[in-house]
Amino acid sequence: MNSEFDSGTTELMRANERNWDARAPIHAASRFYGADGATPADWWFAPFEWNDLGPLANRDLAHLQCHLGTETIAFARRGARTVGLDFSARTIDHARRIADQHHVEVDYVRADVYDAVAALGARRFDIVYTGKGALCYLPDLERWAAILAELLKPGGLVYIVEFHPVLTSLGPKPDPNRQELLLRNDYLAGRGPLEHDGTHTYTDGPALPPDAAPVYEWAHGLGEVVTALVGAGLTITRLRESELIPWPRFDRMIRDEESGWWRLPPDDARIPLLYALSAIKDR
C-alpha cells in the first residue's frame, strides 16, 4: 500500500482491499459478470469505446483496477499486449483463472494503483485504460493522474470510461411505487469518503460474510478529473457523455433496443450516466 497517505486514509484503503477480496469469489461465480462465457467480454464496452481506442494489435495496454478482467480479455483478443492490475489478491487469482479458461494471454499484476509504476517496472504503455466504477475508490486524483502520465509512452493515450458523477449523486426516493430520483450523494469532493455496508455487493449471489469490512467511496466531479489529468501534463482530446450504462442501476430503467444497455425512461429528463475521456501524453 502506498506510504504517502496518512494513516487514516491508508486504513480506509486497506478496508476496501479486504472488502474486494471478500467480493471476488461471489463476483466470479455471478450471472452478472458471466465470467464463464455467458456474458461476452464485449458486452461491457459502449460502441464508441472501440472507435476512440483505435486498432489495438501490437500495442501495449495497461488496464488499471481491472477486477476480474472481464473487460481486460477483450483487449488481448484484439491483439494488444495486455497487463491487468488490481489491488485485490483474490480477484487477481480469479482473473488469471478466467483468462486461462478462455485461452487468452493477459499478464495480471497484484498492486494498488498508486504503486503501479513500481509494480510494473520499466514497462510503458501505448494505452492506459480505466473502466467503470474505479475512480470512486481513489482518495487522491492528482497522484493518480501523475502515475498515469508516468506509465505512458510519449504519444500514449489515457482512456477513462466511468460512471458519471451525476449518476452517483442520484438515489431513489424511498417510495417503491414512484422511485423518483433525487440528489442524495455529493457530486463534488471535499467531505471525505462515503461508507457503505460491507455486506452489500451489486451482483447476484450470496451476501458477503457478516464480518466483511465496510467499503469507502470518494466523490470526484468531472472538473476534478479533467484538472488532475491536465495538471499531470496530459492533453484532453475528447470528452463524451452518455445516457446509457451496461446494467440497470435503478428499477425504473429500460433497455435500449440498439445497444442492449440501459437508460432512464423517455419521460424522464435526459441526464449523463456515463462519460468517456481521452487524454494523450505529448512527450
Would you identify the regions where 5 or more consecutive residues have pLDDT less than 50? Answer: none
Number of helices: 8
Strand content: 15-25%
State the CATH topology. Rossmann fold
Question: Whole-number average pLDDT?
Answer: 93
Terminal-residue CA separation: 29 Å
Number of strands: 13
Sheet with the most strands: spatial strand order:
3-2-1-4-5-13-10
Shape descriptor reads globular
GO molecular function, one term: methyltransferase activity
Organism: Nocardia arthritidis
InterPro entries: Methyltransf_12, SAM-dependent_MTases_sf
Keywords: Methyltransferase, Transferase
Task: Walk me through what this model shows.
By secondary structure, this protein is an alpha/beta fold. It has a single domain, classed as 3-Layer(aba) Sandwich (Rossmann fold). About 30% of the residues lie in helices and about 25% in strands. It has helices at about 5-30, 45-55, 70-75, 90-100, 115-120, 140-150, 165-170, 220-230, and strands at about 60-65, 80-85, 105-110, 125-130, 150-165, 170, 180-185, 195, 215, 235-240, 255, 260-265, 275-280. Strands 3-2-1-4-5-13-10 form a seven-stranded mixed β-sheet, sandwiched between helices. It has a two-stranded antiparallel sheet with strand order 6-7. The chain has a two-stranded antiparallel sheet with strand order 8-9. Helix 4 (about 90-100) links the parallel strand 2 (about 80-85) and strand 3 (about 105-110). The radius of gyration is 18 Å and the shape is globular. The mean pLDDT is about 95. GO terms for molecular function: methyltransferase activity.
